[in-house]
Write the structure tokens for this entry.
Amino acid sequence: MSQPVESEAAPTPHRSLWRDGNFLTMWSGQALSQFGAQITELALPVLAVLLLQATEFDVGLLGAAGTAAFLLVGLPAGAWIDRLRKRHVMIVADVIRAVALAALPLLWWAGLLQIWHMVLVALVMGVATVFFDVSYQSVVPSLVPADHIAEANGKLESTAQLAGIAGPAAGGWLIGVITAPFAVLVTAVTYLLSAGALLRTRDSELVAARHDHDPLVASIREGLRWVFGNVHLRRIVGTTGVSNFFSTITFTLLPIFLLRTLGLSPAQMGVIFAVGAVGGFVGALVTPRILRRLGEARTIPASAIVFSLIALLLPAAVAVPAIAFPLLLVQSFLGTFSVLLYNITQVTFRQRITPPRLLGRMNASIRFCVWGVMPIAALLAGALGTWLGVPTTMWIAAAGALASALFVITGPFWRMRELPTPGD
């Protein structure tokens, strides 16, 4: 076996992340792209529902297209990514996403945009996002020392939530000023800026020589065996997968639910998203305190209980139209708060316990399971919304979400305070 090829120099070990220019460069790029993504998260549903008059089936198809790549290429993507420089993969993915998004306003300006164009762009964006997200969740250990991984994840998640606060408000303003199709151009620009920041970032990743790579199928099998051979990872996958399945049904129909069923405006929809981001930001800030009080292991089932129960408030808004808007603000804040607490805790554990050479496959295997259910759920949302109506479908999704916490509630987490570390 030959020695791995060493990459560019890593940041100085144990340096404070606030003084680590390398991490700050990568962080700033992600902050910009997260901000842009929040604008598009608001602009695309407005474009589909209000300008193209999308049906429930159209919305389901669009949602499925955006996440189909996790089911179709999620597993091999992890094996491929483990053979490549993850930072380089992220750069290419950012450029592809920028080009794909830029096609939408051009088609609208030419008077040619149809829903199938949006579906096609969603498919391309989805493939690029698979490679970006798996690399993103795998690259942190090569950027910061091991004892700073949780801090780095917290900072990255905090920034994502801050972007979620400002992004919807900016998106609502941009939609009003330059219309939804052209608002997505802002996101395309932020993806290019993110790629530029990643070009200036350095990492310490070790890439194995090409002739040392295992066959693709064997590499995929090793990643799956690592995930499902660990009782803690296995139960986390169960909770996250079931939660994602039912929350995808909810969020696929959410634009129709808010804009048509409840009669809210795009601006109010943006406020709901922004308040959710405030909850996520607060969750990211207080996660270290909660971990010190509850312990890492118990925080996972506790947060899962909260976000599975809070999901019931969303369809309940139909029953109390007079207070629907404030009720949705509360639901959005508490739901995102608890989800961020859960995600920061379990992602940090995954990164800490997994050997570096398996990080890409570990994250891809988990993403295949927990995001691969999303296109199926999105198509089901379109079918159920057409057959039963949107409010009834939202109740079904909320009831199903209650089952998601069972995997971690009934597991070994309550009997422990801290989760295992490598070598335990």
Q: What stands out?
A: The mean pLDDT is 82. The radius of gyration is 21 Å. Residues 36 and 187 are 4 Å apart (CA to CA).
